[in-house]
Amino acid sequence: MRRRTAEPYKIKSVEPLKMLNYNERKEALENAGYNTFLINSREVYIDLLTDSGTTAMSDQQWGALMVGDEAYAGSESWHHLEKAVKEIYGYKYVIPTHQGRGAENLLSQMKIKEGDFVPGNMYFTTTRAHQELNGATFVDIIIDEGHDSLLDHPFKGNVDISKLEKVIKEAGPEKIPYVCIAVTVNLAGGQPVSMKNLRDVYALCSRYGIDVMYDATRCVENAFFIQEREEGYADTAIKDILKEMFSYSDGCTMSGKKDCLVNIGGFLAMNDEELYIRGRELVVLYEGMPSYGGLSGRDMEAMALGIYESADDNYIAHRVHQVRYLGEQLIDAGIPVVKPIGGHAVFLDAREFLPHLKQEQLPAQALAAAIYLDSGVRSMERGYVSAGRNKVTGENNKPKLELVRLTIPRRVYTNNHMDVVADSIIALYEKRDQIGGLEMTYEPPTLRFFNARFKPLAKNGELMGNTASVTTHS
Question: Is 117 found in the same domain as 42?
Fold first, then answer.
């Protein structure tokens, strides 16, 4: 009999939660234009919108806030952060930024020129936006299995080496400033990349003189899957897996708000001294001095500690298993989810969940809204709306994956909260034919999913065909 384990921490402080009643949730949803990003946090019961910046920091991190060195230049806290990045990830040079997007901006401006191509293992919204704004075209080189939500494959984030080499040969190595590898792949369902694949990508790119840059936001989760699934790594510590992973790259962008276990912060890291010097100059224009990059000293102290804490085997095992705990309940109930369960979220397949809705009727956006209406649980759309428009034709991109992301914040919720989420989604699935589609009433020109607004397609203006049957928690 397998012995159950508990959280590798105990609760020292609590934040009260409030459940709005059904009518209050309905009003909040309407006021937000059926966009879960626009719902106020005080109106949310369990917040699974994102794992970005929603981490519960440790007592050691909170203590570190009090010793942050707020010097404008040469802060001791900066040196602590730089030391942590070098020790855990192995890069020579580090530039702090206010968050991951700041690092993406710097990298894109320094490396990309008009007409370039950036191959990557599936797009991410802000990453692709920065690449396109600087004149590049993103090219998807993920294996085909990454676009199949129901296929159970251990490393669905892997790069298709033949696709990558084809892009290199057709575009020419001089037109590829770098290859962008996400570890893990968010929009594929939090799917990992194998060590062998990382090694093969790096070897191929080295032959052509092309840099490999990681989106390392959830690299610790990727390391866990390598430890769990890849032959030869079962007895290798997470910190050692991380060091090997990063040895197959030339640099990375990092949003510290995920696997660095803080509420704000990020960095750009690299091994190329010339690129580092250029980055030090550019960061002053957009972020701040190279020794703080838009962060306070206390933020850097907390992130330095978070980097060490995240590389703990017990921490990451619990983190992934809690996500899996929710996902397995849904699978057991017949709910269509992306398989295998990823590291940071459970992704519902909205097309399978709501087969009566066409993709143009925004099934993922509608399902995310229906979940909030049912239980006060906030999730987010990752499909037609998030994919945006083709930058050349202006036509809507139509991704194969139409998903709702249930993103689990780190060290925040218990498994009892996961039970509440599961109950809501299972109840909705039983009356899924009552969930109607949405149409967009306001579309921002860039990254539209953040601020777009919607309305129900139904003539009576209701999202759910039979609102009386919706769960009415008080």
Answer: no
